[in-house]
Specification:
It is a single chain. This protein is of the alpha/beta class. It has one domain: Metallo-beta-lactamase, Chain A. It is 28% helix and 28% strand. The chain has eight helices and 13 strands. The strands form three sheets. The protein has a six-stranded mixed sheet with strand order 6-7-8-9-12-13. The radius of gyration is 16 Å and the shape is globular. It starts with 5 loop residues before the first strand and ends with a helix.
Length: 196
């Protein structure tokens, strides 16, 4: 599935967050440890298995808090660890970094992107060249269109880190996507619905 997992860390405090732990938890935890970082938080972009499969392992190894939007928390609620419910615009800190949670429904009702300075972790909301599927349970094309418009209003220099490697390059920018991504170029829901 070519999933991306990310570690976001403050080099001064050595506190870090793990975004969407799945598949290669051991490798990322070893990387964090080797660089002297402590995983204190888990940021979940949504509740699909390929983004949450490693949550329990990370919690067991680190005791990290789990951050997820309340509309997507159900499968996570059964696990271990302290669950923190996200709301749109909520601010979280990682060391001295301020992280803003942006609710971006469409792929799932609780899909959330995380904005850290000019770095945006989008999960399955925005990919390089496309957006996440809306035809799975909980998907909503109208909500996705609104979410993409919300992201399009961010600074064009904002770097985008998607949840999967489905495009021509692993990291992109809002500005590049506004120029090249058909799901961000359209100006109306009717046009959005016509994208294959």
């Amino acid at each position: 599935m070519k999933n991306f997992n990310y570690l976001i860390g403050d080099p001064e405090t050595k506190e870090c967050a793990y975004v969407d732990p799945a598949w290669e938890v051991d490798r990322l935890l070893k990387m964090a440890k080797a660089d002297g970082y402590q995983v204190k938080k888990i940021f979940l972009t949504h509740n699909h298995f390929d983004h949450v499969d490693g949550v329990e392992e990370v919690v067991q190894e680190t005791g990290a808090e789990v951050y997820i939007h309340s509309l997507d928390e159900q499968p996570i609620k059964k696990g271990k660890g302290r669950l923190v419910q996200l709301s749109d615009g909520m601010e979280i800190t990682i060391g001295s970094f301020r992280v803003t949670a942006l609710n971006t429904p469409g792929h799932t009702p609780g899909s959330t992107c995380y904005l850290v300075q000019q770095h945006l972790f989008t999960g399955d909301t925005l990919f390089q060249g496309n957006c996440g599927r809306c035809d799975l349970p909980g998907g909503d094309p109208k909500a996705m269109f609104r979410s993409l418009q919300k992201l399009a209003n961010l600074d064009p220099e904002t770097k985008v880190y998607p949840g999967h490697d489905y495009g021509l390059m692993p990291i992109t920018t809002i500005g590049y996507e506004k120029e090249h991504n058909p799901t961000l170029k359209v100006g109306s829901l009717a046009d959005f619905d016509q994208i294959p």
